[in-house]
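Hi U.,

Before I forget, here's the chain from the pilot set. I'm dumping it here mostly so it's searchable later in email.
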Amino acid sequence: MREQLLASTFWGIRRPKVPLAQGHFLLRLNDPSIAFGAESAADLLRCYGHLRRAMTDLAGATAAQLYIALNWHPVGDAVGEPLPETSTPTVHAFFSWPGSTTAASALRLPAHQRVAVGNTEGLDERLRVWGGGLVSDTPGGPTPGPDRAWEPPGWADRPFHIEPVGPAPGESFRGGHWSAVARFPAATLDGTDPLSLLALAKNMTVLASHSRPPFQGVTLWVTEEWPSPVPAVIHLFARRHGEEPQQIADFVAGGGLDLPLSQD
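Structure:
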């Protein structure tokens, strides 16, 4: 297991065993027995925000792509997703800047063909000391939502608009792929209200368990760029072993992780 670069109360920042890009990092829960509650969600956003600002300053990052799996471990070629390193809750973060390797270019390959990048030590060392070496809050903290007094009862419990993703032209509807967009988006994802993040995690579980037959797990991909005039779109995939091809592989192969301007 790689050395932890930075640690916060609940989450830590480290390199994966097989970094697929200079900007590939892990956000990992320090203690897997800790429940994902409001404090843990807030600390995850704090760690991501610290890492995002550091990569912007140190490497000129302009985008990040985040992956997390819930009750799911990819097997086989795992096209479209990184391989798990542990059962401990983990977020894969891929930061991109001009000339860098992107998540899309690395993950289009089957797992056995992927090659770890080298020469990450210099960036890692600068990250360790950036901002005094302490994980800090996003300036201004979570973005406060607007006045919701006018909303009908129950709307306050729906921080994300979630809907099924339709099929590509000429293909039949398969189900199991949803998009989620924050109803009151922050400028960047680290400005998200922690309670909204908890609600999204709950919705991920509900989407999988209420399907017939139930799915075994859910994975999430989200791309954000800064600055951006439009909110980030979160893609949720219900997962079931034995289904081929996996929708997430089709999503990545079809350009779902491509950035508007190629950075390869």
